[in-house]
Write a structure and sequence with these properties.
In chain A, strand 5 and strand 6 form a beta hairpin. Chain A is built from no helices and eleven strands. By secondary structure, chain A is mainly beta. Chain B is globular and about 45 Å long. Chain B starts with a strand and ends with a strand. The mean pLDDT of chain B is 94. Classes of the chains: A mainly beta, B mainly beta. The interface between A and B is medium-sized, with 25 and 26 residues.
């Protein structure tokens, strides 16, 4: 079991560029989510999904899109990168949000927007 | 909306002393409260969790308490060791929204 795999680990973008952060899990988890982590602000929920075909907004969804076409994958898209989106991004999965199962995190993607 | 407040933001203790981190939550529908430890440059990792039908849970040197009436929950680490040094996050999940909302973190330093 690889757990939760995030790619890339590091990325530098220019303002206005778009990109997709990849997240895949091999634990057959229904629940997946994306967080961003900024100094002094903890982990803030961007978007989450309780199953394939279902997504919902978290605390800070603006500037990000997600889709969930399969149980395994939950990509995060930045449509037009801005310096304020410089952050560390974590993807997480759990067996089911309805049953309050522990979330397992990936290693993170460190994103810099110039 | 949902909110989780965490205090203190930094905590320094001598090896062998106890450490206590406190959190409050706003959503009365919250029913799951995990705690995560994050070492520098690493992913957050679950260390203990508690559900709303339980008031206290222990795992060796770590314990968590929950006061649903006051919407408070706390992490207690006894006999601290230098390897306990890390950032600790509390979180609360609501059965209404399925959102897991995190506190802002506590940086714990344990001095030998």
């Amino acid at each position: 079991n690889a757990g939760v795999t995030q790619t890339p680990k590091f990325q530098v973008l220019k303002t206005g560029q778009s990109m997709t952060l990849q997240c895949a899990q091999d634990m057959n988890h229904e629940y997946m989510s994306w967080y961003r982590q900024d100094p002094g602000m903890g982990l803030r929920l961007i978007h989450y999904s309780v199953g394939a075909g279902i997504t919902d907004q978290g605390e800070v969804p603006n500037g990000y899109n997600v889709s969930r076409s399969t149980t395994e994958d939950f990509p995060l898209r930045l449509l037009s990168a801005a310096p304020s989106q410089t952050s560390v991004y974590f993807c997480a999965s759990s067996a089911g949000g309805y049953s309050n199962q522990p979330q397992h995190f990936g290693d993170g993607t460190r994103l810099s927007i110039l | 909306g949902e909110n989780v407040e965490q205090h203190p933001s930094t905590l320094s203790v001598q090896e062998g002393d106890s450490a206590v981190i406190k959190c409050t939550y706003s959503d009365s529908a919250s029913n799951y409260f995990p705690w995560y430890k994050q070492e520098l440059g690493k992913r957050p990792q679950l260390i203990i969790d508690i559900r709303s039908n339980v008031g206290e849970k222990k795992d060796q040197r770590i314990a968590v308490t929950l006061n649903k009436t006051a919407k408070h929950f706390s992490l207690h680490i006894t006999e601290t060791q230098p390897e306990d040094s890390a950032v600790y996050f509390c979180a609360a999940e609501s059965y209404n929204t399925d959102k897991l909302i995190f506190g802002t973190g506590t940086r714990l330093q344990v001095f030998p």
